[in-house]
Amino acid sequence: MKILLASSEVHPYSKTGGLADMVGALGKALAQAGHRVGIVTPLYRGIAERFPEIRRVDWTIDLPLGGRRAQAQLWAAEPIKGLTIYFIQQPAYYDRASLYQENGADFWDNGERFIFFSKCVAHLARYLPWQPEVVHVNDWQTALVPVLLYEIYQHLGMTHPRVCFTLHNMQHQGVTREHILRATGLNRHAYFFHQDRLQDNFNHSAINLMKGGIVYSNFITTVSPQYRGEILHSSQSYGLGHTLHVHQGKLGGILNGLDYEVWNPETDNHIPRKYSINTLDDKFANKAALRNRFWLRDVLRPIVCYVGRLDHQKGLPLVTHAIHYCLQHGCQFVLLGTAADARITNQFHDLKRHYNDNPDCHIEIGFNEDLSRLIYAGSEMIIVPSLFEPCGLTQMIGLKYGTVPVVRATGGLADTVFDADHAPLPYGERNGYTFNDFNHAGIESALHRAIGLWYSYPNHFRELMQNGMRCDYSWNNPGGHYLGVYDLIRDK
Ligand code: ADP
User: Is the pTM here over 0.90, yes or no?
Assistant: First the structure.
C-alpha cells in the first residue's frame, strides 16, 4: 500500500514528545513490511546540519496563503528502503530555536505556521508522483489536511482522498481566530465557520482545527484503546465530546508501539553497559554510571526516576510528592524533564536548589535523549503519575529496560502496566504497580508496595523487572492494526 504520513515532529529529526517516536516508528515499520511510505515534516533549525544525507529536491511549493503567496523548498531523505522523509523548508516559519514555543509561550503565529504546513502536505498528497492511497495525519498541526483534500483538492482532480487522523493529545486542539480561515483558502466563511464543521464548540468566535480533522477524516484513532473510552465519556475530550459522539462510528483505539531498534538495552550504544533479560546484573553497571554522572552516593538503595515533559498532564503535584516520599523511604530519585511553561520551570529549579546538596537526589531540567537512556537503564523504578495519558511511552521504555513502572491507571498506562499485587493476570504477566486516585495517598500506596518489594523480596522484584522486559510492545501489532484501518478506508 502507498501511505503518506504527516507530523509536526518525527524522530530522529525533531522531537518534543511521543508523537515524534510514534510517527518515526510507524513509518519505519510499514516500510519494513514492504509498503511505500512517505513522511512529511517541517525542516526545523539544525536538522539539515545533523543529517547531511538530507538532499534538496528540485521542487518549490508555491501556495496561496491569505492574500499573498508563500513558498517552501522541498528536501528529502531515504533512511531505509521504501521510506522517504519529505522536509518542508520555510525559514520564516520553521527556522527557529524551538518547535512550538519561546520563553514559555506558544509562538503567536503557530496557527499560520501549521496551516501552511498542512497546505504543503495536502499539495504533496495530490502531486507526489507515487500517488499515496491513504494520508495519515496526526494531532491539530496537520488536522486541516483532510479538510483541504475534501474541499479543495477533490476539485483539483484528487478523486478519492482517504485520511486517517490520529489523536495523540486532546488538550491541544489548534483553536485559532476565525479570520485564519482566509489563510486556508477555505473561503466560504459561513459554510466552514459552522457548528458542524470548524467552529469551536465553546468559543463560538474561534475555529478548531482538531475538530475539522475529526469531522472530515475517514477514520480517527486514539493512541490507546483506554484513551478512546476516556475521551468519549469524560471531560478529557477538552470540549470536543459532542463532536466525538457524533463521529464515534469511525473512532478506534490503537495502542502505540515502541521501536525496539531504537529502545533496547541489548543494542543501545548510548548506555555504558548493554544488558538483556539474561544478563540483568549488567544493568547495575548503568546504575553505577548514573550515580557517577549525578554525584549520587553509592548505597544500598533503589533509584526511582521520572523522565518526561513537566506539564500539568503529567501529574506534577504527584511527581513532586513522589520525590519527597521516595527520599524519605530509602530511595534515590532522578528527574529529567523540560517545561513549556516558565512558571513550572521555575518551580522545578526551586526544587533542584532545595535538593542541591542531597546525595540521593538529582533534578535535571533540559531535554537530552542520551541522558534519558542512562536514566532508563540505571534506575529500578520509573514513575508516571499522569492526570491523563493518551498512551505514554516512558512506561514502555521503562519496561524494556527492566525499570519497573509505577503509574496511575489512566489511558495507555492502564493498557500497558499490570499491577504486581492486584492485576487479574498470572504473576508472570504482571509488570509494575498502578494506582487510581489522583492524590498523595494514591501514589504512596503504589510506591510503598514497590519499595517494600525491592527491600524485602529482591528476587520477586527481579522477576517483576524480567516480566516487564518480556512484554512485547513492538510495532508488530499496532502496525498491523493501522494497515487494517488503511485497508478499510481505502476500499470504502
Ligand atoms: P508525551 O508525548 O506526552 O510527551 P510520551 O511518554 O508519549 O509523552 O513520550 C515521551 C517521549 O519523550 C519519550 O521518548 C521520552 O523519553 C521523551 N522525553 C520526554 N522528556 C524528555 C527529556 N526531558 N529529555 C529526553 N527525552 C525526553
Answer: yes
